[in-house]
């Protein structure tokens, strides 16, 4: 029996699971000195979705966040979650990107790298583990825990042996969904500890309501380290409360020795801070359906967000039912980023389309053919065949996927120079661009010019202005078709910049239907409504010729690339444009032969069922 060590996950996994990773650095720094004095084994502060969210939503440089945290946490080892060859992104990167990312992360303050692969294909950990050891840091090899017909205790014990042979310094059981039950935990950890003599960390989410009991049984079985979150950022889809575990173990042979009074001060701080992020709160309290659907805490909150973005939150339960089927068809991957994103998004698309696999995302195709690694079981052969055909390939990938990727760093340096219009760029920016090429350019432009703070009053006034404008259009345009179109828009969610596009569609429908707009005021509005915005969007003018087909958006998302020119001849199956939605890329293909007319421009935000292009 020995003292149990605690890894605090408040500054990474807790807020990722509870408030969509929105916690800002400015709310971390004031309490950090107190957290530094506690005596945690480590603090998880980086990795996972924090990098993405920082540049996508918070206009924060994740590298600077790490530098600032290291300055105020000098006595506590800082830990990050690294997705093996995926790093903190959503695809495999070349080895030179992996090496340079780890070099920089270590330089900026990461001491412990918790490295995992979503498929438990440890070929995808080799380069990361090797590099972490090269820079003299702690490599924690991770086993992604899940339940399926092909996952057994024997499987996980072999995983642990493989990790030890790879040279890791410790092992983590990552129960991202909260699936581990107490007795299963005891059997699993006892078996691993008997087979492998390395420190063992236990990571289990509270989603299913059993995490405290799971941690206690894990400790009895020999776990050395447990992950917890401060109480005001714990439970629900997060982790067990630090204070609860400290109290449970006090005056036992496992006593952590941590100060409950100081922990209480930290809890009070985060209780107040959390109020600022109420709009991002997960709706999940305790969800025992986790044992049926096996959805991780972070994935649950992400699914809620995705469905709200798609104006389809009422389909939440239906999506949960769809996930196990997609997971089975894809070869029973553990549901952790990026496979949780791939499987979850595919399930959302299946439900929204009302048809299973009407559309396969690029990420789904790459998972099916082996570009993410070997799945625990063989995927559905028909889906594999279809994925190969749509990707233009003849056979699946059987080697380490990264061996197929040429060195990327030099190319990324040149692209970053081009985007920033500089002759010299920092390696940090190059890595940020390499990981997130679609969102990094906008971040580079805005990070030094943050938008002016908007008060709640100003937000309310803007929202009311949008509502009033939309109501005005309802009055001005009396035709039945117009009422349906405008009523489908949720005024609260419209950006002012999108009003022009919405109304140009109204006007276009009026002209296409040859409907007379008789009101003088309405006629004037039809000619002048947001004219500059309509021109900026380059909305195509209606043609007298009726299109063979109008392609509508399957999701709410952003136009990522336009691959065809107006008037260009296309064939059925040609990719016309791509959308980014729910962190994955959608190819929009022509369904008939003909000439294409593009109705959107790159960067446009489109709603589900908005027209994207026409084929004549």
Gist of the model:
By secondary structure, this protein is α/β, with parallel strands linked by helices. 44% of the residues lie in helices and 13% in strands.
Overview features:
single chain, 616 residues, alpha/beta, 16 strands
Helix content: 40-55%
Low-confidence stretches: 469-540
N-to-C span: 75 Å
Strand proportion, as a percent range, falls in 5-15%
Overall form? globular
Strand elements, count: 16
Number of helices: 25
Largest sheet: 8 strands, parallel, barrel
What is the average per-residue confidence, as pLDDT, rounded to a whole number? 86
Order of strands side by side in the largest beta sheet?
A: 1-2-3-4-5-6-7-8
Query: What's the alpha carbon Rg, rounded to whole Å?
Result: 26 Å
Structural class: alpha/beta
